[in-house]
Write a structure and sequence with these properties.
The chain is mainly α. It has eight helices and no strands. The chain binds protoporphyrin IX containing FE.
Length: about 140
């Protein structure tokens, strides 16, 4: 009986340890996984296409490829199961002479998509915070 009790107690302990260490949802999870991130990027690119402040940059862009890489990049950066296979941000934007206002315009288009898709404010802010440090790599290169 004593042995059984010990076995039972260890089982209970194991169970609670498992609960205590259960993984926190990643930002990727909070954004709704692949479907959620895809909707956010589709929406952002839609707003960019209509945004006369910056849409000329994308006149010759390969939009399906760009969307795929953006989804991959956000997924990888937000702790999702992806590997970003595109160029680094300096190389991708070299020679485009993107200024601060143009960078901010794209961020606004992303914010519109976050709102359109009812993304949780906290998760949306985390995504914005993840992209903000890329500004120095994208601007004026
Ligand atoms: C945090 C902000 C940004 C991120 C994360 C981002 C991300 C990316 C990525 C992942 C690519 C594809 C790289 C590759 O081809 O391997 C790309 C390309 C590109 N980006 Fe950005 N970008 C940002 C800001 C901007 C801004 C502000 C503009 C212009 C106003 C811009 C214009 C472009 C253009 C024109 C391309 C090339 C598309 C093509 O030729 O198909 N990006 N960007």
């Amino acid at each position: 009986m004593k042995k059984l009790n010990i076995a039972l107690a260890s089982l209970l302990l194991l169970g609670s340890v498992q609960v205590a260490t259960a993984a926190e949802p990643t930002l990727y999870d909070q954004l709704g996984g692949d479907a959620g991130v895809t909707k956010i990027i589709d929406g952002m690119v839609g707003h960019v296409a209509a945004d006369t402040r910056i849409n000329s940059f994308f006149a010759n862009a390969n939009i399906p490829r760009l969307k795929k890489l953006l989804v991959e990049q956000v997924c990888a950066g937000a702790g999702g199961p992806c590997t970003y296979k595109g160029q680094d941000m300096v190389a991708a934007h070299k020679g485009m002479k993107i200024n601060s206002a143009q960078f901010n315009a794209l961020v606004e288009d992303l914010q519109k998509s976050l709102a359109d898709n009812n993304v949780d404010i906290g998760a949306g802010n985390k995504l914005l915070a993840m992209l903000a440090p890329m500004k120095t790599d994208v601007d004026n290169k």
